[in-house]
């Protein structure tokens, strides 16, 4: 019963948040502050509805370097709500061009200023990434990328795609890893308190002086650091209650 009620409330909230976000984005299309604002419109009420209790490590809410490429682990469709509350100012995300055609949400995603690439077309994807190199500096923005390229569903950190790391090196900006524990492993939406989420940002990884040949090593370093962090967050989530002043209670 609780699960069905949550899904109903979440559906209503999603539509309302989308319409509110569209209103903002129509008034100021492609503004780099649209994405952080819309992400919070989705995230904060949704976390209450889902009963997810979130603990934010101070590193997540600290000022991050900008421009930068922000890399996060990708667990489920609920990541919009989990990570949405910590999207830094002047940050946009990278998504598939097909998202643009989803009713309402797709138009919001586009008008919010997020970057759309045609993944099945390597030439156009490279062109979009090349244009983005200059855009990061010219518009003083950061870009959020789920480097795995697909959801892990709690099975652990998957292999990374090269795009985020090539972009960071070409643009000469740091990588900022942001990690979540594998919250989907314990999430039970039929319980009042459905699960615990812990978010942590790792120290920025500089790309200064790196070239194309350094991409594999940069990927390996970032993957190893994030995997170790996620394992530690999993241990914390299983042994400690997420109750502190930064927590979002159910």
From TrEMBL:
Coiled coil: none annotated. Keywords: Acyltransferase, Lipid biosynthesis, Lipid metabolism, Phospholipid biosynthesis, Phospholipid metabolism, Transferase. One of its GO terms (cellular component) is plasma membrane. One of its GO terms (biological process) is phosphatidic acid biosynthetic process. One of its GO terms (molecular function) is 1-acylglycerol-3-phosphate O-acyltransferase activity. CDD domains: LPLAT_AGPAT-like. SUPFAM superfamilies: Glycerol-3-phosphate (1)-acyltransferase. It catalyses: a 1-acyl-sn-glycero-3-phosphate + an acyl-CoA = a 1,2-diacyl-sn-glycero-3-phosphate + CoA. Pathway: Lipid metabolism; Phospholipid metabolism; CDP-diacylglycerol biosynthesis; CDP-diacylglycerol from sn-glycerol 3-phosphate: step 2/3. It is an enzyme of class 2 (transferase). Its EC number is 2.3.1.51. InterPro entries: AGP_acyltrans, Plipid/glycerol_acylTrfase. Residues 68-183 form the Phospholipid/glycerol acyltransferase domain. It holds the Pfam family Acyltransferase. Belongs to the 1-acyl-sn-glycerol-3-phosphate acyltransferase family. The HXXXXD motif is essential for acyltransferase activity and may constitute the binding site for the phosphate moiety of the glycerol-3-phosphate. NCBIfam families: AGP_acyltrn (TIGR00530). This is 1-acyl-sn-glycerol-3-phosphate acyltransferase.
